[in-house]
Amino acid sequence: MKTIEVDDELYHYIASRTQAIGESASDILRRLLRLPASPQPFVLVQENMIDELKDLAKLPKNKKALSNQEKIINRVEFVLTSSQFNDEKKVVNRFLQMLSALYLANSDEFSHATVKVQGSERIYFAKDKEIILATGSSVKAKQIPESPFWVITNNNTERKGIILEGIMDEMGLPEELIKRVKSALG
């Protein structure tokens, strides 16, 4: 058996894909790469990959490799396992990182979701900071990185989780992923 070095982010990604207690990194990678469970001669592995590529080529041309929802899920998973997100101490910064990931994954769906997710007296999202600030005397807003949106940020951690939950729900993300994001927030 050979040893390889991987960065922390890749290690966390591999570890997050564990399905059974005691599953080795080799087992996880074999599963993710769709390789046979036990080592086989390289020629056989090559044949398996060729067969898989032939099957993929048979898919209808108009079918995308990944659906929009899968792209969003992958981006959220990437952020959840990143050291930048996990090492961040401030909840507001983790909140902004996740909102940025959702926007970057699908800006149209994110934009539609922001219209539907608002408080009873406050607007949570706007493309103009002043619109958010006008909804109260003690309101604070920050721009979501790499997006034209501003978000209210002086809510408590629970409210930030509710805001993220609302956006993710409107974007059609799975409930299990939404729960993981909320618990990782704070």
Automatic annotation (TrEMBL):
Molecular function terms from GO: DNA binding
* Record's keyword annotation contains DNA-binding: yes
Query: Is DNA-binding there in the keyword field?
Result: yes
- Identify the residues that the record assigns to the Negative modulator of initiation of replication SeqA N-terminal domain, covering every copy: 1-36
Subcellular compartments: Cytoplasm
**Xref: InterPro entries:** Arc_rbn_hlx_hlx, Ribbon_hlx_hlx, SeqA, SeqA_DNA-bd_C, SeqA_DNA-bd_C_sf, SeqA_N
Q: Which domain of life is it from?
A: Bacteria
Q: Which residues form the Replication modulator SeqA C-terminal DNA-binding domain?
A: 75-183
Keyword annotations of the record:
Cytoplasm, DNA replication inhibitor, DNA-binding
Instruction: State whether it acts alone or in a complex, and with which partners, per the record.
Output: Homodimer. Polymerizes to form helical filaments.
Name of this chain's protein: Negative modulator of initiation of replication
Source species: Otariodibacter oris
